[in-house]
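Sanity check

After download, print the first record. It should look like this:
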Amino acid sequence: MTERQLQFRVGIFVSVALASIVGLIFEFGEIQTLLRPKYTVKIRFKSASGIAVSTPVRRNGVLIGSVKAVQFDDENGGLIVSASIKDGVHLWPDGRVRLNTSLLGDSSIEFLPGKSNQALKDGDTVEAEPAVDPLNIVARMEQNVALLIDSFQQTSHEWQSVGHNLNSLLQTNQGNLHTVVARAAEALTEVAHTMKTVDQTLQDTSRLIGDPQTQENLRKTMSALPVLAEETQRTVVAVRVAVQKMDENLTNLNAVTAPLAKNGVTLATRVENTLSNVETLTEELSQFAKIVNSKDGTIHKLAADPQLYVNMNRSAESAAMLLRQLEPVVRDLRVFSDKVARHPELVGVSGALRGSSGLKDPEDAAAPRPQQQRQ
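Expected structure tokens:
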């Protein structure tokens, strides 16, 4: 093998090795992640302890991106974190966003599912929940443990007192030693049971404090307290206004009922007299109704006797016939009165000697009156 062939084979081997190294770096390194398309989502925090560039962003515990920028929100007084999210990852606009911080100080942003069918787009902004600092929880737990230790110390002092009293009892009451021992055993049993209960309570408290759902419920309760206080204040104001209006109504009602109370006896007397008059009127109406409904009564006969209707009908027919017969008489009387008014001399001797047809004669109408002849 010549030296040229050896160099050629070494070059091929080195090239293959470099290509393999590049492929491994591309496959398992961050180069592939950097080459994938991404979109940016802005997250608004009130406070974000532990957030920095390259802080992981997860959805349901799976890594979906990282923080690429952190800026101050001068308008709202918080922080705006720009997160770079892998393309194709669905994030909900109504989903919750929270900051998770471990006891060691590691932080990550967690996106929780929502119910919206739409997804966040490039440049959208979402509100994040207030961060829960585990150190505060540990501090509160430390305070509770300190209180527990104080209670243990008080219990130890009490036990010291019990021991002292027990020694005194043993010295003074040797005969009751078995009873004292039995009671001490019962006390120790109760103390052991109490210690187990305290231990179980501490474990339950630790689990309760570490439960994310409990923390979430506490956060919701604390956030709802201002709204509840405001609604309570509004309710108190409404009740105060209602009481004032009720007081005014009672005052007005008192002003209305005061004259009634003064004239109560007079009004009662008048009402009693009115009721007596109404009762008398009712009795009279009842008697009148009995008289009307009586079969021998005139009104009942007028209403129920058909012969009366027939007689009244006949009387009406006779009256109509009489009126028709009186029409010529009335007409003759009108002609006679008119003729007498025109020729009053007809009522004298000549009128009695010379008959008249009773009608207006053309000659008489054309003849001049005496006054006209005199003229």
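If your output differs, re-run the checksum step. Summary of this record's structure: The first helix runs from residue 3 to 28.
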